[in-house]
Amino acid sequence: MKKFNKYVGLDTHKETIAVAIADSQGSKTRFYGEIPNTRDAVDKLMHSVSPQGEVVSFCYEAGPCGYELFRQITGAGHECLVAAPSLIPAKPGDRVKTDRRDAENLARLHRADELTGVWVPDCEQEAIRDLTRAREDIKQLEREMAKAMEGWTLGPVAEGLMALRGCRLITAMTVVAELGDISRFETPRQLMKYLGLVPSEHSSGAKVQRGGITKTGNTHVRRILTESAWTYRFPARKTGPLQRRAEQTSEAVQAIAWKAQKRLCGRYQSLNARGVQKNKVCTAVARELSGFMWAIACEVMDSGSVKPPAVPQ
Question: Residue 151 has what pLDDT?
């Protein structure tokens, strides 16, 4: 991790931001105060903590306030980490929670490099993701989603995913909107881990004990993949609607989709015959389905039909 002179923790809310600062020397974290959650107030804060223009590292939890604060801070030349809330270390038995303590805790953990950042989408990506999330509350937005995909940078990837069984417009757009460029994962295993679809493990010495899935990743994608997994309980076959969607993609993508259907239908039947609980069967199928989605995304991206979205600076 790159070293900075100051690490600033921000506990963000709709109206206010609690601010704490940790110096690089390891001194006690100090509470700066509470500021309004406005662009002007944040600009004044950045000037206050960096009067000479030195680069300062900020951090805040991912949440409903979005990523506009991240873009404002990085746009001013500073560093900013958007921390994954589920991966923030917590002391057992610590029942006291205030904005001040949260800000100080973020600053201290950020200085110690103990925070895990989330992937931050660009403006276009965030807009598409907000649209797919809104669809869960207002079902008639599906037509707008179809229109939005026509000019979307990653639209070809979503179209490629629609060649898969159980992956129509809503599922495909949700997955790509939530994850962005899926080919950024080096292996399908990394994607499965990111989605929280891999088993948890508690090991000590020679004893290895595995439990349920970690559930630390994106809940929207994990839910929608589990729903798609139910469609693989039937034998593999090329239905008319599925074949028409597949024909809109390349032969390579169609081959991956057909291989996925044969594999996952067989996997479902095999686990079901062994008496595995239905929800565990669907979880296992969803995990492998994400791997085939990764393969299709890599194929589409490698074909040159789409350029990767710009990485936020």
Answer: 87
Nearest to 263 by CA among 292, 283, 299: 292
Contacts made by residues 128-134, CB under 8 angstroms, sequence distance 24+: 128/152, 128/154, 128/173, 128/176, 128/177, 129/177, 129/178, 131/177, 132/170, 132/173, 132/174, 132/177, 132/178, 132/220, 133/220
User: Domain 6-111 in CATH: superfamily?
Assistant: YqgF/RNase H-like domain (3.30.420.140)
- Rounded to whole angstroms, how far apart are CA atoms 294 and 301? 10
* CA pair distance 147, 140, nearest whole angstrom: 13
The phi-psi region of residue 113 (left if phi > 0; otherwise alpha if psi is between -120 and 50; otherwise beta) is: left
Interval 156-212: pLDDT, tens? 999 999 999 999 999 999 999 999 999 999 999 999 999 998 876 555 556 655 667
Q: Delimit the domains of the chain by residue range.
A: 6-111, 123-302
> Quick one: residue 122, left, alpha or beta (phi over 0 = left, psi -120 to 50 = alpha)?
beta
Radius of gyration of the chain (CA): 22
The residue written with tokens 């403006």 in the block is 123
Q: How far apart are the C-alpha atoms of 221 and 196, rounded to whole Å?
A: 10
Average pLDDT over residues 243-251: 94
The answer to whether 195 touches 221, Cβ cutoff 8 Å, is yes
Output the DSSP codes for 164-201. STT--HHHHHHHHHHHS-GGGSSSHHHHHHHTT-SEEE
Please check whether residue 228 is in contact with residue 171, taking contact to mean a CB–CB distance below 8 angstroms: yes
88-102, 217-231, 242-256: lowest mean pLDDT where? 88-102
Q: Is 284 helix (H, G, I), strand (E, B) or coil?
A: helix
Decide: residue 116, CB within 10 A, 0-12 exposed, 13-18 middle, 19+ buried. middle
